[in-house]
Amino acid sequence: MKAEASIVQRISELQKEGMWYDKRLPKVCEAPKARTHWDYLLEEMSWLATDFATERKWKRTTARRVRLYTNNINLCYIYGLDLSNTTNWIFRRNGGKLPKMIY
How far apart are CA 91 and CA 83, in angstroms? Predict the structure, then answer.
Protein backbone atom coordinates (compact mmCIF):
# COMPACT_ATOMS: atom_id res chain seq x y z
CA MET A 1 0.00 0.00 0.00
CA LYS A 2 2.85 2.34 0.83
CA ALA A 3 4.52 1.70 -2.53
CA GLU A 4 1.25 2.23 -4.38
CA ALA A 5 0.65 5.51 -2.59
CA SER A 6 4.13 6.74 -3.46
CA ILE A 7 3.60 5.79 -7.12
CA VAL A 8 0.28 7.65 -7.28
CA GLN A 9 1.89 10.66 -5.60
CA ARG A 10 4.78 10.65 -8.10
CA ILE A 11 2.31 10.45 -11.01
CA SER A 12 0.39 13.45 -9.69
CA GLU A 13 3.67 15.41 -9.35
CA LEU A 14 4.63 14.58 -12.94
CA GLN A 15 1.16 15.61 -14.15
CA LYS A 16 1.54 18.99 -12.47
CA GLU A 17 4.92 19.45 -14.18
CA GLY A 18 3.39 18.45 -17.52
CA MET A 19 5.59 15.38 -17.93
CA TRP A 20 2.90 12.71 -17.44
CA TYR A 21 0.20 12.20 -20.07
CA ASP A 22 -3.00 10.27 -19.66
CA LYS A 23 -2.96 9.39 -23.35
CA ARG A 24 -0.60 6.91 -24.85
CA LEU A 25 2.36 8.25 -26.71
CA PRO A 26 2.31 7.81 -30.48
CA LYS A 27 4.16 4.82 -31.84
CA VAL A 28 7.61 5.54 -33.15
CA CYS A 29 8.22 4.42 -36.71
CA GLU A 30 11.32 2.30 -36.75
CA ALA A 31 13.31 1.33 -39.79
CA PRO A 32 12.61 -2.21 -41.01
CA LYS A 33 15.07 -4.77 -39.69
CA ALA A 34 17.44 -6.28 -42.22
CA ARG A 35 17.01 -10.03 -42.68
CA THR A 36 19.78 -12.06 -41.17
CA HIS A 37 21.00 -15.60 -41.69
CA TRP A 38 18.92 -16.69 -38.69
CA ASP A 39 15.73 -15.37 -40.28
CA TYR A 40 16.41 -17.38 -43.43
CA LEU A 41 17.22 -20.44 -41.34
CA LEU A 42 13.92 -20.20 -39.43
CA GLU A 43 12.01 -19.78 -42.67
CA GLU A 44 13.70 -22.87 -44.12
CA MET A 45 12.93 -24.86 -40.95
CA SER A 46 9.27 -23.91 -41.18
CA TRP A 47 9.14 -24.95 -44.83
CA LEU A 48 10.88 -28.27 -44.11
CA ALA A 49 8.50 -29.07 -41.24
CA THR A 50 5.53 -28.55 -43.54
CA ASP A 51 7.18 -30.60 -46.28
CA PHE A 52 7.94 -33.52 -43.95
CA ALA A 53 4.39 -33.49 -42.57
CA THR A 54 2.80 -33.58 -46.03
CA GLU A 55 5.16 -36.34 -47.19
CA ARG A 56 4.37 -38.42 -44.10
CA LYS A 57 0.65 -37.98 -44.81
CA TRP A 58 1.17 -38.98 -48.45
CA LYS A 59 3.14 -42.10 -47.46
CA ARG A 60 0.44 -43.20 -45.01
CA THR A 61 -2.28 -42.71 -47.62
CA THR A 62 -0.30 -44.60 -50.26
CA ALA A 63 0.50 -47.45 -47.87
CA ARG A 64 -3.20 -47.72 -46.99
CA ARG A 65 -4.20 -47.85 -50.65
CA VAL A 66 -1.61 -50.53 -51.43
CA ARG A 67 -2.66 -52.52 -48.35
CA LEU A 68 -6.32 -52.46 -49.33
CA TYR A 69 -5.52 -53.39 -52.91
CA THR A 70 -3.23 -56.30 -52.02
CA ASN A 71 -5.59 -57.47 -49.27
CA ASN A 72 -8.27 -58.09 -51.91
CA ILE A 73 -5.88 -60.18 -53.98
CA ASN A 74 -4.72 -62.14 -50.90
CA LEU A 75 -8.34 -62.92 -50.01
CA CYS A 76 -8.77 -64.36 -53.48
CA TYR A 77 -5.85 -66.71 -52.91
CA ILE A 78 -7.07 -67.69 -49.44
CA TYR A 79 -10.62 -68.52 -50.51
CA GLY A 80 -9.55 -70.04 -53.83
CA LEU A 81 -11.49 -67.65 -55.99
CA ASP A 82 -10.82 -67.38 -59.69
CA LEU A 83 -8.21 -64.64 -59.79
CA SER A 84 -8.75 -63.68 -63.42
CA ASN A 85 -12.35 -62.57 -62.85
CA THR A 86 -11.67 -61.20 -59.38
CA THR A 87 -8.75 -59.02 -60.41
CA ASN A 88 -10.88 -57.64 -63.21
CA TRP A 89 -13.50 -56.76 -60.60
CA ILE A 90 -10.84 -55.21 -58.37
CA PHE A 91 -9.42 -53.26 -61.29
CA ARG A 92 -12.88 -52.06 -62.23
CA ARG A 93 -13.63 -51.01 -58.67
CA ASN A 94 -10.34 -49.13 -58.30
CA GLY A 95 -10.30 -48.06 -61.90
CA GLY A 96 -6.89 -49.71 -62.37
CA LYS A 97 -5.39 -46.73 -60.59
CA LEU A 98 -2.90 -48.46 -58.32
CA PRO A 99 0.17 -47.40 -60.34
CA LYS A 100 -1.24 -43.89 -60.57
CA MET A 101 -2.02 -43.85 -56.84
CA ILE A 102 1.55 -44.74 -55.96
CA TYR A 103 3.33 -42.39 -58.34
Answer: 12
